[in-house]
Amino acid sequence: MSEEAADQGSESKLTVVLALVVNLAIAVMKAVAGIITGSAAILSEAAHSVADTFTEALLLTALRRSDKPADRKHPFGYGKERYFWSLLAAVSIFASGAMFAFYEGFRTVFGEAEEQTRPLVGYIVLALAFAMESVSWAQAVRQVRRESKAQDRSIVEYLRMSDDPTVKTVFLEDSAALTGLLIAFAGVGLHQLTGSSVWDGIASLAIGVLLAAVAYSLARTNRGLLIGRQADPVMIRAIGQRLREAPEVEAVVDLLSMLTGTDRVLLCARLDFDDALGAADLERACVRIDGELRAEFPDLDEIFLEPVPRNDPAMRERVLSRYGFNL
């Protein structure tokens, strides 16, 4: 793993640990406030913070287990463990956060009217929770901005293409937490102004929808990574250009890549080499090309170079069926 990747891993761990500590404290505060005020929205927010705390614990497991070195049973390493545990984190957000919020919302909207007690306690706790959550959110934003700038991408594009689900998870759940607090504040306020608990229930339902949307987004991202997503297209195009520039290579027939973990890429290049090369020349060329690629693209973890003829019809058909055109 490169020094830059190690630094990113340390920052990811800091981001997750900070979020875990903050969410655990907030969950206790919200639970107490929810019991005192009887607010469905605040109770839903308590469940939200409990879900976030479980999520951070799962993300810490992901960071720890994905760093295990490759061995005989897992020759490509354990990098995809990060995607598995992050997928479980998305399920946790939905199962323990969104479902409880929906339950509280429907119970309050369609059940018997409930009297609001000591709303001031709710306002104070929500304000404190917002201030504390902002600390965790600010750390996530700093990391997202720094890494998106390093990749010369917008924040939206970085979040869409990132191969580190832990950062995206913390960023999205913290953003959802701040939004949920504002929704809960509105629900408590409207309940106090109108005397109707329906507004509290509507706020709880809105929090449930918010959490379900975040959970779906994260689950979809991790599903793609677990299945085996292609590496960064910008990097793959640059690798293809470097291979074409190699004096021994006449054509790049196929270029396959897969993310095997955060900052870990498996590359398989099928190349048409100069027919004049002898076996020893071909071996030396492959060793040199491998070294040059690793030096320029440190995310490359495993590289396979396969000599194939460019005019082989079966190979051309496979490439055409995969990309819609020949490389």
TrEMBL record:
Any one of the GO CC terms: membrane
Transmembrane segments: 12-36, 83-103, 123-141, 170-190, 202-219
UniProt KW Membrane keyword: yes
Record's bilayer topology term: Multi-pass membrane protein
GO terms (BP aspect): zinc ion transport
Pfam family, one: Cation_efflux
NCBIfam families: CDF (TIGR01297)
Descriptive protein name: Cation diffusion facilitator family transporter
